[in-house]
């Protein structure tokens, strides 16, 4: 649970979790196994189509939430089920406590429910004098530890068998062998007793099927079957977003849920309960059944144009499974009650700004969660939106406000960058283009020494453009270059390499529109949405898309931001909207441009025979779904050698690496270890930020593996 | 309607992948013999790895003692004629067969015997209308769950079975179960463990009923 009051405290907590070796290893192993497991589970299925269908069906249900609730209520009540609607978490807890009292229940057996975690139901019931026992093994374990779940599907993934054995020794008053199979059997036996004694069973619900008034439960252990069968009273606590019009809708989600959660084709048990069933433990042989629907902000969310989509979430936990930050720090520091990417967002809506304000900053924006989401939720964007909203409410930190102001004024920004070249002179290393030590005004130096940072180039790309612009007599294509700030001011050689390769075809007229500015992603990352909108507008005005066939950029982050974020950022600008669509449509990355559009031949290059590894920038492989082109491009001039986890983030994330250096450092260390294991001479990538991070890391660690942009590695072998 | 070989093979493959034992039978009589045989060849409930032999609390082990010493098989909701045949086979082997009162056996029974309503090949799942509490319990508290799936009831996917599932769910009250493999968990260190709350084994008998 997130309890920090100051960002420094949160950073401290994060560092402590980084030191939890057991958790790190467990999550690492899982992350790697999950990737294969999920792929196998979906073999032969149209995953994208399924995700699209789920998103549409959920959106339809969300729009009709009130109507569906009324229909469900009518249907279920006609069968004798008591249906309630709780406006707040507190009210839901009160309703459930009252049901217990009215039915003279003393002991409760619970099947796993994230919604009950959301309302802190156990605390409430216990305060009312009830005994509550969790029956899901993982939940039982964390209940005994007084903790919340650290994963939505595997709540106790952070604990070792030894910790579990210690807990069980406490329950059984017997010494326990830390053998997992034995521990599970001990739990089976101890919990069987609890089912027998319970008067009331509480479950969550994965589906509330309107056409039949049915509650659907998805479990592996079978605890939900026992908890809804043995006690004489059953209460299901259900978020309103679980309402689904038809059985078909539920079956469709069921196709994705276990596959996306753990790589299972289906869970051991799927239970569909329609009406109060036979219960021989009840006086009249019939179960007393209550369904408590929880609003807690859901109705309001359902009407929000942007955020309604978070109600699509089917609680598979996949966004955590693939998140590189979660993998390092675990769910207790990467969520409040709900964890992972969706948890960062839900925390804000269900548990408030104070619980969410640091969490939302801890997103490296790698896009892995968005790609894996079973309901197609645009998680990274929504996390940034909330970050911006919180800053609008709480006031913007001086640093990000300043950054926003500077970026909005292109000439000021560029002048500052050029002046930095002089300002940094005293800090620059004599040899090479690295800063020796950092001016402390920017960051804590000791936190950043895991990588060497580059100096500003002597001459910006924009200042050289006039002299290097290729002459093309009969162009077949007209292309605008978008450099982004890093390639413009720090690595102009990357731009020059690209120009050299494209010019070699003699068919492309290149232009570098001078009024282009920073793409705006950095300020967007810092929660300065207004500045991001302003910069986006300037760029669309600076590069008239009607004059070009393509707008090419060699920075993956810029490309993805220009293509996908601009239309969203400028959606309220009616005048610019058609132009923005055209602009976004024409954005292309370097590798796709030379490989797919120009179809440059390998004959143009002298093969080097050098072994080259590849790092796939998040914003290229997931942001633009460009995967083959860069690898094939490298292979035209060198030997591309696959390495492990090529698509996992290097930890740069722009200003992220400044704010969360400990995480950035750890991600980088993993990245470098994976690359080194490939026995390669150089690493190619297609984002200057990734170059900065990995090259800086290699340099700081004294490794002699070169790190270059794909364009540079190609240009050096051009015949 | 004859069931395609492909569908049967897919069902078998998927069910076996989640540790179910799958066998083909020609006549229902073979199922009775099979269930009795499995019951005879297993250890009595207390000796199986259901927990009683571990370091459990005194209260939990009291529940174990409450279980009758002889072997118990439950077959609720079986047609009278079928039940009579199974009872005969069980009696001959010295196994106690019961049809109801499963709440008296919450510490566990040896074998639960049932006939499935549908099968889903795509995931190797059985569909059982478990509106009877005794049937629900016998498929949960048995250590070995033996379920007959008539091949005429095998469907390719849950979508294909939808038209048959819906009427079952519409007939209130109803308690419908999809069962796939044995009860399982991976909650401790993600290590797969079978039988955390429910059966330790699932045996599926594919019955060529047509």
Give a summary of the structure in a few sentences.
Chain A has 719 residues and is of the alpha/beta class.
Question: How would you describe this structure to a colleague?
Answer:
The complex is a heterodimer of chains A (719) and B (210). The model of chain A has no long low-confidence stretch (mean pLDDT 95). Chain A has a six-stranded parallel beta sheet with strand order 1-10-7-4-2-3, with helices on both faces. With 719 residues, chain A is an alpha/beta fold. Chain A contains 35 helices and 18 strands. Chain B is α/β, with parallel strands linked by helices and 210 residues long. Helices cover 34% and strands 26% of the residues of chain B. Chain B has helices spanning 5-17, 28-41, 58-65, 80-93, 133-141, 158-170, and strands spanning 21-25, 72-74, 96-98, 109-115, 118-120, 125-129, 142-150, 154-155, 174-179, 184-185, 193-194, 201-207. In chain B, the strands form three sheets. In chain B, strands 1-12-7-4-2-3 form a six-stranded parallel beta sheet. A four-stranded mixed beta sheet of chain B has the order 8-5-6-9, sandwiched between helices. The longest helix of chain B is centred in the N-terminal third of the chain and has 14 residues, at 28-41. The model of chain B has no long low-confidence stretch (mean pLDDT 92). At the A-B interface, helix 2, helix 8, helix 9, helix 10 and helix 11 of A face helix 3, helix 5, helix 6, strand 9 and strand 10 of B. Strand 9 of chain A pairs antiparallel with strand 9 of chain B, so a sheet runs across the interface.
């Amino acid at each position: 649970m997130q309890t920090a009051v100051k960002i420094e405290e949160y950073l401290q907590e994060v560092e402590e979790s980084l030191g939890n070796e057991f958790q790190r290893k467990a999550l690492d192993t899982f992350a790697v196994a999950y990737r294969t497991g999920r792929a196998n589970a979906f073999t032969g299925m149209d995953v994208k189509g399924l995700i699209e269908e789920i998103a549409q069906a959920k959106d339809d249900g969300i729009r009709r939430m009130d109507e569906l609730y009324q229909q469900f209520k009518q249907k279920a009540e006609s069968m004798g089920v008591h249906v309630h609607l709780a406006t707040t978490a507190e009210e839901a807890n009160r309703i459930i406590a009252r049901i217990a009292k009215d039915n003279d229940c003393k002991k409760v057996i619970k099947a796993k429910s994230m919604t009950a975690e959301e309302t802190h139901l156990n605390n409430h019931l216990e305060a009312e004098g009830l005994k509550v026992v969790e029956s899901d093994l993982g939940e039982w374990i964390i209940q005994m530890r007084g903790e919340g779940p650290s994963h939505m599907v595997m709540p106790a993934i952070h604990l070792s068998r030894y910790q579990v054995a210690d807990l069980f020794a406490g329950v059984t008053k017997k010494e326990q062998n830390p053998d997992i199979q034995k521990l599970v059997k001990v739990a089976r036996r101890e919990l069987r007793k609890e089912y027998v004694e319970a008067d009331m069973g509480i479950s969550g619900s994965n589906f509330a099927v309107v056409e039949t008034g049915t509650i659907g439960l998805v479990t592996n252990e079978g605890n939900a079957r026992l908890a809804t069968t043995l006690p004489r009273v059953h209460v299901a606590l259900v978020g309103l977003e679980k309402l689904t019009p038809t059985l078909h809708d539920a079956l469709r989600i069921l196709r994705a849920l276990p596959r996306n959660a753990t790589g299972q084709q289906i869970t051991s048990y799927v239970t569909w309960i329609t009406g109060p069933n036979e219960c021989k433990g009840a006086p009249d042989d019939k179960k007393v059944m209550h369904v408590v629907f929880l609003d807690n902000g859901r109705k309001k969310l359902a009407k929000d144009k942007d955020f309604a989509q978070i109600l699509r979430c089917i609680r598979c936990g996949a966004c955590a499974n693939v998140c590189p930050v979660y993998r390092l720090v675990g769910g207790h520091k990467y969520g409040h009650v709900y964890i992972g990417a969706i948890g960062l967002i839900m925390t804000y809506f269900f548990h408030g700004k104070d619980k969410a304000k640091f969490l939302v900053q801890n997103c490296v924006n790698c896009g892995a969660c968005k790609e894996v989401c079973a309901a197609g939720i645009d998680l990274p964007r929504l996390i940034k939106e909330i970050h911006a909203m919180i800053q609008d409410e709480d006031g913007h930190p001086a640093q990000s406000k300043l950054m926003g102001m500077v970026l909005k004024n292109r000439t000021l920004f560029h002048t500052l960058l050029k002046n930095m070249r002089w300002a940094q002179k005293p800090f620059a290393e004599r040899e090479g283009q690295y800063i020796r030590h950092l001016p402390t005004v920017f960051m804590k130096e000791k936190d950043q020494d895991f990588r060497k940072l580059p100096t500003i180039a002597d001459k910006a790309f924009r200042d050289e453009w006039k002299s290097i612009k290729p002459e093309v007599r009969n162009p077949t294509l007209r292309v605008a270059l978008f450099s982004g700030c890093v390639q413009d001011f720090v690595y102009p050689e990357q731009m020059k390499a690209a120009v050299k390769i494209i010019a070699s075809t003699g068919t492309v007229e290149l232009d570098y529109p001078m009024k282009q500015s920073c793409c705006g992603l950095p300020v967007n990352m810092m929660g300065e949405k207004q500045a991001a909108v302003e910069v986006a507008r300037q760029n669309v005005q600076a590069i008239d898309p009607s004059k070009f066939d393509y707008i090419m950029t060699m920075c993956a982050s810029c490309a993805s931001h220009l293509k996908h974020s601009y239309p969203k950022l400028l959606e309220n600008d009616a005048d610019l909207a058609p132009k923005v669509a055209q602009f976004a449509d024409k954005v292309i990355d370097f590798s796709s441009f030379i490989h797919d559009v120009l179809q440059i031949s390998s004959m143009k290059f002298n093969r080097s025979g050098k072994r080259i590894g590849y790092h796939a920038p998040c914003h290229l492989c997931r942001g633009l779904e460009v995967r083959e082109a860069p690898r094939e491009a490298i292979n035209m001039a060198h030997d591309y050698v696959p390495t492990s986890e090529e698509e996992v983030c290097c930890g740069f994330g722009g200003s992220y690496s400044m704010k969360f250096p400990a995480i950035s450092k750890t991600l980088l260390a993993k990245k470098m270890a994976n690359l080194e294991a490939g026995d390669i001479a150089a690493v190619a990538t297609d984002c200057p930020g990734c170059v900065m991070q990995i090259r800086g890391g290699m340099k700081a660690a004294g490794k002699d593996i070169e790190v270059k942009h794909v364009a540079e590695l190609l240009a050096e072998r051009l015949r | 309607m004859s069931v395609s070989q492909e569908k049967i093979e897919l069902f078998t493959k998927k069910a076996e992948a989640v540790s179910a034992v799958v066998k083909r039978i020609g006549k229902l009589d073979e199922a009775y013999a099979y269930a009795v045989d499995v019951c005879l060849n297993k250890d009595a409930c207390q000796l199986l790895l259901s927990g009683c032999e571990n370091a459990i609390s005194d209260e939990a082990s009291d529940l174990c003692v409450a279980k009758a010493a002889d072997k118990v098989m439950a077959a609720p909701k079986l047609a009278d004629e079928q039940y009579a045949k199974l009872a005969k086979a069980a009696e001959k082997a010295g196994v106690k067969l019961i049809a109801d009162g499963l709440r008296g056996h919450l510490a566990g029974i040896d074998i639960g015997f049932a006939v499935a309503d549908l099968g889903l090949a795509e995931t190797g799942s059985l569909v059982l209308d478990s509106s009877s509490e005794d049937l629900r319990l016998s498929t949960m508290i048995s250590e070995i769950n033996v379920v007959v799936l008539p091949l005429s009831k095998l469907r390719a996917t849950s979508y294909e079975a939808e038209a048959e599932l819906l009427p079952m769910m519409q007939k209130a009250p109803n308690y419908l179960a999809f069962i796939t493999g044995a009860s399982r968990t991976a909650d401790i260190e993600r290590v797969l463990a079978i039988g955390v709350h429910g059966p330790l084994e699932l045996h599926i008998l594919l019955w060529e009923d047509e």
